[in-house]
């Protein structure tokens, strides 16, 4: 295993961790309240609101005093968090279990800068790949990319799962107002045949292009869908020379070019990603090709510029950065208040997939029980991330946020102006503005109700809201590619901060492997593949298989 730099034995065994524990117990015993914190400090709202780029981050409604922040900062120092971020951004192999660098920040670094890993500057390759992507997308938009029958491509279907879909699909939705309209883009991830069927609904094979995104090019769901897409295309084209014809309709994005080629993808249509870009952090790589096809190269580059802005904020002084602060606050709640989850509630229809994207980023990165050296993590690690779009969420799960027995810190995202496409689709734009204002008001009201509860006391307990429930409000002027990039990078860094405090390797995901192996065995048994060894099953699985067969075959 590569040398681990500046890593404490176990953060939970440090003096600063013990001090945080004492401090938390004191605050809890003293009944610290958000109401009390605001009463004691009239300037708290202003002091605890930080601007970075286009984002205004209001973190005033947190159960944290100046002392809390000092102790959290000391913990970050003791955990070597800033060092870990610097190591990551400068290409050291911080993914220790796989001995890989983690360089998603290089994908959006200042062109012309050198970022090296293993003695190699990765920036020229990144720039070249972005240029290839842009040329490809320009050709698509100019109707110069034609299918096998000579028809211009009109629809692009992204086939990929996890990090090869969640980020680009989220951004595709978020940036609906920036889509060029030259091609229609869709995303298919699930191996459920219904997913591909609805992804292909209404499309014509002659004018449809598939982008198969798979870093390893071995993901079962993606390959199964890609094969089905090949069959659909061949049938739709009705060409005898289907194999050659198919090549016009498939491109791949992968770190394993050989596997993509073996699958039948034309080498000239293979875009590269690298083993030093984790799937869940890969939106700025060629994994974002379909997104770029939707919004155009310029907007894609703006997205990267937004990420770069937040990366520079973090890189210039990690310890003083907003992702550090927010990451440390999540550690505070997770480890010293026992809060188990984080609700992510964008008050933006277009950002409604943001939490779905973030689930993978936080939970696949930090949902781990051992530290980088293999020892037990010694405390709770990643929180469960969940949520949904406000105001819909208010009519669904906010009851629990306000009066449930569990406290859920919430992240509210809100925009000062309506989503970019509203002006064009909503004829009554003044009315749209007013409805957007109602949305914003609801966001502010929720943060207030959570923090301060019902005024007065001694009322009807059924109607009383206890308050004292923390939240962050992140506001931006408007949902632009740059703003989205800033948000994405903020949460990516927050995730890295958490993992660094816990001493976790945030960049592997071995927890998902056993299920894949078991599924492989079960699927060959269900299909009755001749000669395939029947794997031994546990009794519960054997019983499920028997029930399934009975239902399937009757
Ligand atoms: O199974 C988990 C995972 O490896 C994710 O980390 C990844 O984003 C996803 O599968 C897809 O992987 P690939 O891009 O290699 O198909």
Structure, described:
The chain is 47% helix and 11% strand. By secondary structure, it is α/β, with parallel strands linked by helices. Helix 13 (322-336) crosses helix 18. Residues 161-164, 214-216, 219, 222, 279-280, 364, 509, 512 line the site of 6-O-phosphono-beta-D-fructofuranose (F6P). Residues 161-164, 214-216, 219, 222, 279-280, 364, 509, 512 line the site of 6-O-phosphono-beta-D-fructofuranose.
Topology diagram in text:
Blueprint: H1 15-29, H2 34-40, H3 44-47, E1 49-52, E2 55-58, H4 66-79, H5 81-89, E3 116-117, E4 120-121, H6 123-141, E5 155-159, H7 166-174, E6 184-188, H8 193-200, E7 208-213, H9 220-237, H10 242-247, E8 250-254, H11 257-263, E9 270-272, H12 289-316, H13 322-336, E10 341-347, H14 354-366, E11 384-387, H15 398-403, E12 410-415, H16 422-425, H17 429-452, E13 471-476, H18 481-502, H19 513-527, H20 539-553
Parallel strand pairs: 5-6, 5-7, 7-8, 8-9, 10-11, 10-12, 12-13
Antiparallel strand pairs: 1-2, 2-13, 3-4
Short summary of the structure?
This protein is an alpha/beta fold and 554 residues long.
